[in-house]
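[step 3/7] fold_predict: job queued, chain A
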Amino acid sequence: QVELTESGGGLVQAGGSLRLSCAASGRTFSSLTMAWFRQAPGKEREFVAAHNWRSGINIHYADSVKGRFTISRDNAKNTVYLQMNSLKPEDTAVYYCAAGNPVLTYVRNQQGYTFWGQGTQVTVSS
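[step 4/7] structure written:
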């Protein structure tokens, strides 16, 4: 069992930055693929970014955040981060941390992840 706890959400103006953190406990953190998903009101949950250790470091981003968001992890602290820069109002959502061992074709699919955090709200004002 893995427990995930997100933090770092809040209210920020457009163009600003936030850093989300997700602390994991329970299993060997370094063996897991860690990802961020988000869900805006009235919309389906969507992939944001993923970081796994299979066959070296593999990092994936949704096109909508590429160049603005950076995912990173600190295995010594069992923590994954999402640095969000140049935030836009359309980035407003609840952001969820996820952990699992998805095959490559499921890295961007929420079905590939077994463990989920409770979510943290990010609101970007215009």
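[step 5/7] annotate
Residues 73 and 80 are 4 Å apart (CA to CA).
The mean pLDDT is 93.
exit 0
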